[in-house]
């Protein structure tokens, strides 16, 4: 069976106002710039992120390191309706499919050289006493979440410095998936901007899967 090396980043496709109160097409601009935001852990949406760090008294340097790291979150799943509801504005947004085998992500050099890591789901927070050093404990803390989040099938890009954007080669974008509630006009606008930026991904719109509560992509 062929391995699926695509990971997806869901975007609500919202417009926001800048400091001058001018409307900004944030998610489309980010897509065209082929960049991702590296969030610091306190900005993530799970209040229990890195719960084990609260008990890390044996590794005083770990908390300092953790406060600086940047994380971009992706999902392996593209047909889970919960992801489209939670992260793509109730199916009105879109998803970017990134080729995680692209050399930029480090997979070509082996997973030990990569800064992409699959999230592990556990019911009990990590115990720092079971780790021999702070580095191992920190990496496990960065990549372990409650089993309540397992439906996301999350992959994390972890960098040393957060609170900034990272530009990824546009060739790594292989798919653009439109939510089933997105208008035809908006799909055309996004497609034309993507093509004008020199990208050549495939395009599909999510549709209701017959006989189920699921969704599946149809080429457009």
The number of helical elements comes to: 5
Number of strands: 14
Give start-end ranges of low-pLDDT stretches.
none
Radius of gyration: 18 Å
Order of helices and strands: EEEHEHEHEEEHEEEEHEE
The tally of structural domains comes to 1
Q: What is the terminal separation in angstroms?
A: 27 Å
Which percent bin holds the helix content?
Answer: 10-25%
Mean pLDDT metric:
86
Q: Assign an overall shape.
A: globular
Structural class: alpha+beta
- Strand numbers in spatial order across the main sheet: 1-6-12-13-14
**Roughly what fraction of the amino acids lie in strands?**
25-35%
What profile does the largest beta sheet have? 5 strands, mixed
Properties at a glance:
220 residues, 5-stranded mixed beta sheet, alpha+beta, 29% strand, 20% helix, globular
Descriptive account of the structure:
The chain has 220 residues and is of the alpha+beta class. Helix content is 20%, strand content 29%. It has a five-stranded mixed beta sheet with strand order 1-6-12-13-14, with helices on one face. The chain has one domain. The chain has helices spanning 26-32, 60-68, 81-87, 134-142, 184-196, and strands at 6-11, 16-17, 23-24, 35-38, 70-75, 94-99, 116-118, 120-122, 144-146, 154-159, 164-167, 173-178, 202-208, 215-219. The mean pLDDT is 86. It contains five helices and 14 strands. Strand 13 (202-208) and strand 14 form a beta hairpin. It starts with 5 loop residues before the first strand and ends with a strand. Helix 2 (60-68) packs across helix 4.
């Amino acid at each position: 069976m062929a391995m699926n090396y695509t990971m997806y980043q869901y975007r609500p496709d919202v417009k926001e106002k800048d400091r001058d109160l001018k409307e900004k097409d944030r998610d489309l601009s980010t897509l065209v710039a082929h960049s991702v935001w590296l969030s610091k852990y306190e900005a993530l949406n799970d209040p229990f992120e890195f719960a084990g760090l609260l008990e890390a008294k044996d590794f005083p340097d770990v908390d300092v390191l953790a406060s600086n790291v940047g994380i971009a979150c992706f999902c392996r799943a593209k047909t889970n309706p919960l992801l489209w509801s939670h992260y793509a504005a109730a199916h009105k947004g879109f998803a970017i499919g990134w080729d995680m085998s692209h050399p930029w992500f480090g997979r070509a050099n082996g997973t030990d050289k990569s800064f992409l890591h699959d999230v592990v789901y556990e019911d009990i927070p990590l115990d720092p006493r079971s780790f021999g050093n702070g580095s191992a404990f920190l990496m496990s803390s960065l990549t372990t979440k409650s089993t309540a989040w397992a439906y996301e099938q999350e992959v994390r890009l972890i960098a040393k410095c957060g609170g900034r954007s990272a530009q990824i080669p546009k060739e790594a974008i292989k798919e653009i998936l439109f939510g089933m509630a997105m208008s035809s006009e908006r799909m055309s606008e996004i497609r034309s901007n993507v093509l004008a930026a020199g990208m050549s991904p495939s395009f599909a719109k999510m549709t209701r899967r017959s006989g189920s509560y699921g969704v599946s992509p149809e080429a457009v």
